[in-house]
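Before relying on records like the one below, remember that each one covers exactly one chain. Contacts with other chains, cofactors or solvent are not represented anywhere in the record.
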Amino acid sequence: MVKVRAARPAEAQDLTGLVMRSKAHWGYDADFLAGCAEELRIRAHDVPARRIVVAETERGEVLGVASLEGPPPLAVLGLLFVEPSAIGRGVGRVLYRDVLRRAAELGVRRLVIDSDPHATGFYRAMGAVATAPVGPGAGTGPGPGPGGDPGDGPGGGSALVRFEVAPAPLADWARAWTGGGRAVHLGNVGEFNAQFADATLDREQRPAHHYACLAAFYSPYPAALVLPRAVPRGWTELVCRQLGWTGVEVYDGLLDGDPGLSDAVRARPALAALLTGAGLPLVPWGRTRPFGRLADRPWRAGELRYESKSAAHGLFGRILADGGHPEIVLPRQWRADGRWTAARMLSARTRAGESTVVKSEHGVGGSGTTVLTPARVRAAGGARAVLRRLPRGPLLLEEYVGSPSDGGVETAGSRGPRDLTYDGFVDEAGNVHEVGGAVMDVADGCYRGATVGPGVVPEWAGKPLLAFGAAVGRELADSGYRGWFDVDFVADGQGRLAPTETNLRLTGPSIAFMVAARLDVLRGAGHLVRIADRVELGARLPEAQLDELCAALVRGCAELGAVFVPAIPTGAFEPAPWMGVLVAARSREVLDAAEVLVRAEALAVGAMFGPP
């Protein structure tokens, strides 16, 4: 275990020796090293002035040194060197992340790194952005670097490479979400869904137990994960490595078939005491009565009433009645108590040439939501034939919101993305916190993923989306709801947004927001993060081969300048195998390229089982 502490002035000479040994490790000749010696010398008075820290073992053995120099908002990573015997053991990563953390706390918004060529691979892997060569010099490395461009070679003056990074503190909303600290994550997706007697939800909640893996990402830095099904050890280790987590406890395999994860924890008194007695926030996928008993939190009657799509529609109407949101339009909605009533209503709309969205009262990920164009209804043999395939029980029929040019077919409007969402949460004091907007990937009413980050939501949609989402949050707070929520929208291509539902729980976009907040702290500000809920695999893989695939995707995405994090591994063991993934980058182009790579490589795994 390596820890970082402030260096002591009395260590200056020893630290200078460490720096010179680290520099010499890469084969520089004596003349070059002699020329660097004065620049790399650490004097006693430099230690506090240059904010020098060291990394050391629990036994006090010093393994590396780093400095953070200059006043904010611009600072320099002046030193980052690792003892040759410790190179490749993660010491440089620990020091670098400590420098970024301290820089963010000091208010540094631009950190400059003039890197030795041997360290360029390291800094790229850490998320720094190369700007330009800056000429020969000693450089901040190559101590921690795994190697790289040899520049002018060991015998000459290597050209330094300038990198820059924007240190970022943890986002304000993330601090408010868990108090700025770590949390216990409870993957009670199935338990949440089981509250709603909806025919579109699987009684055994098998898909929900896969999605419970997203509990790894319920906050930017978990202390413990509590999961209904067993998960691969290699998965948790890789996620921790990619997101810089340490000391994460995993309690999995707690359920056989029943969706009640909170009660399963309560049935294990020692585990319940461990999880609830540590003084850490207990974060679920969504609020339930059993969770209230586990967390010793009163359950409020009607707390989740706006999870109902018709209740949410009524809420939207009340907010819009005051006329304060002119760029928001509410689609008309009708309730049908049975399929035949719905068939009569759908037939009338079809004859009038109107497209219709048919919804169940509850449902997740678009389950129970179908877009029916007149052409689709006629091709199926009429409204009754279409609705015969849908679940029994009450249905909602909603006006289809489309762009004027799409002819009733669900396509992106001329002004950009069609499906957007607002994420926020209500804290225990009833205060509403804005997290942000995201663009969702939706096909035929079914959610497939989302992208968050700077510039993702188009400018024309940003203000009305945030304003209306905040208004919904205030109404939820007044109703007694506490926790995460989102508001989903459809864009009509004319600069208007139509709210379609609220989700009173964590969601796929919320997971992307959590990961973006963590990566911004680890690697500097500006990450775009995409969650893809279902990436098809070309073959059902044993656990070891799944680990190999994920490791290869980590390397492949890193070569593009992206970050890969496996999000849902357990779907890989299904008869029709798949996995959920997260990819992150600082540009849309790199993000798209990373997703293409991941999908292609995931499908290609089937080739290893085919004929040569």
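The radius of gyration is 27 Å.
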